[in-house]
Write a structure and sequence with these properties.
123 residues, 7-stranded mixed sheet, 4-stranded antiparallel sheet, 50% strand, single chain, mainly beta
């Protein structure tokens, strides 16, 4: 019954921006870590960013530092990923995920996953 639903993906030109949303429902996530991962065709899913729901502390992959920003709205139970200065190599399906306790950058630590939203960046 836990549900994570991503939205906000689309087609954008290189240098453009998008804001992705992840609506979380089904339980209280106040003690959880929320993460964003991405996967391009033929490649493995990789870590992008994470936020600790309670404190707001954040962690980013080196490839997106300074360009992407993760945030959360406690009242709306929603996590956001602001994507700026997008490049073609950012093209992927972006997934929202949640975990209670584990290594925040590793995929196996995340128990719950959304269906993903497509981000396509044209050259």
């Amino acid at each position: 019954q836990v549900q994570l639903v991503e939205s906000g993906g689309g087609l954008v030109q290189a240098g453009g921006s998008l804001r992705l949303s992840c609506a979380a429902s089904g339980r209280t996530f106040s003690s959880y870590t929320m993460g964003w991962f991405r996967q391009a065709p033929g490649k493995e899913r990789s870590f992008v960013a994470a936020i600790l729901w309670s404190s707001g502390g954040t962690h980013y992959a080196n490839s997106v530092k300074g360009r992407f920003t993760i945030s959360r709205d406690n009242a709306k139970n929603t996590v956001y990923l602001q994507l700026n200065s997008l490049q073609p190599e950012d093209t992927a399906v972006y997934y929202c995920a949640a975990q209670y306790q584990g290594i925040i950058t590793t995929l196996p630590a995340y128990r719950y996953w959304g269906q993903g939203t497509q981000v396509t960046v044209s050259s």
